[in-house]
Amino acid sequence: MQEPTGRGSKRLPKASMQAQVAGELRQMIIGGELPPRSSLSEMALSETFGVSRTPIREALKQLQTEGLVEIRPRVGTFVAVPSHRDVAELFQMKELLEGAAARLLALRGRVAETDRLESVMAEADEATRAGDAERYGKVVHEFHELIVMGADNGKLVAHYRTLMNQLAYARLVRTALAQPGRLSESDHEHHQVLDLILAKDGNGAERMMREHVRRSHQALLAAWDAEEDTSPE
Fold first, then answer.
1. How many CB atoms lie within 10 A of CB 152?
2. CB 20 within 8 A of CB 12
3. Residue 39 DSSP class
4. Looking at residue 155, what is its pLDDT?
5. What is the three-class DSSP state of 77?
6. pTM of the predicted model as reported, rounded to 2 decimal places
7. Selection from 183, 213, 203 nearest residue 92 by Cα
């Protein structure tokens, strides 16, 4: 099992140590630096961040509440491995939130977020033509963020942030985009969503965004099935 190494000592201010440690670990998990099943030693983390074990322990409890960490008494603490049911439920919520966000943004008309969305899609098209799934994944992360922010609804944004943390979505996107043809399909779906938003078609934008999220989930499941078929007995 992997432990966080090679990051050097991180001396944090005494104030909000727990929050800062939790934030660092959250990003390491979401970004894939700490993959599922990685062991999280309180002692090692204490040395890494240059703090006592108390804020480390509290940060790990917080991340357990968020669904990112699993604490097994008398065994250890590990990066959580979400079940297929967990991911399915989270994608259902993602579909609802992003669908609503697309609708709300469409109803707002031309705003700063829609202008940026057009630029982002030009970057996504370049990544698609180059077959660069890594770059594409980063670009479309901004696409989804812009739509949620453009909804101009603070409650929706807050729930979305929590959801994306629980999904560790960056890791899942890389897996889904590895499916043959998914990169170009995803790019086309994003264009359809943006066209409907620019046309101020709230119902259509919500419907297309929800369809896109469902297709992303299906691509992820197909990738998982392929991994299981090729894994050694």
1. 15
2. yes
3. B
4. 96
5. strand
6. 0.77
7. 213
